[in-house]
Amino acid sequence: xRHSALLVSQSLAEVAAMLRPGMTTLAIDQxxxxxxxxxxxxxxxxxYHGYPFNSCISVNEVVVHGxxxxxxLKEGDIIxxxxxxxxxxxxxxxxxxxxxxxxxxxxIDLVRITKESLYKGIEKAVSGNRVGDIAFAIQEHxxxxxxxxxxxxxxxxxxxxxxxxxxxxxxxxxxxxGAKLKEGMVLxxxxxxxxxxxxxxxEKDGWTVKTNDGKVSVHFEHDVCVAKGKADVLxxxxxxxxxxxxxxxxxSGYQAAVL
Length: 259
Description:
Order of helices and strands: HHEEEEEHHEEEEEEEEEEHH
Distance between the termini: 25 Å
């Protein structure tokens, strides 16, 4: 599974290197499809329950499942790129949010805090804990401390031979509740956090999820293997962050504050 997860990481690092104003999300999606296949994988999302693209690319108020299209990216856009890879019988599935140009401070804070909350959740992904411990850690850091909207309708999930497996991993909940975490269990932990209301709706295409108030949403996701004492993160943000910091078209000034 680590091989599949790392191919997703490599794909996202390539995206980080190329993102710029004027690009279309459709061009990014087509690149992702080619890159995955060139490296021996298959895009997990393509044709999954009829989904028609290689990746989900969600811009600004789109929370998740954004359809790649011909609209050009512009300064200040927030882009979440979610990629899945099927390789050697297992799936990898994770996401990263990028900032094109110089954003407003409230957007920088939302990106930083959402990313921090992902690691708060990962800290709880150890054997003997429960799903609610992960959920509580994410909700406490985003909603309770900062007043952001934590999406209820969409959750993280187990990952393995199938793209979505039990247990579901919400980003809200109570400590000590939910499924017990067992060593070797792999989870896709993915906070989806809104600047404003937590309320969302789905477009007529049946996939694109947007915030009710039109404010931006941020999505980060890691593939995590439950272990004793400390979770084993199978995916790797390091190459993505390195490419992001080298791309003058992207804002990465919040990175140092996250860890």
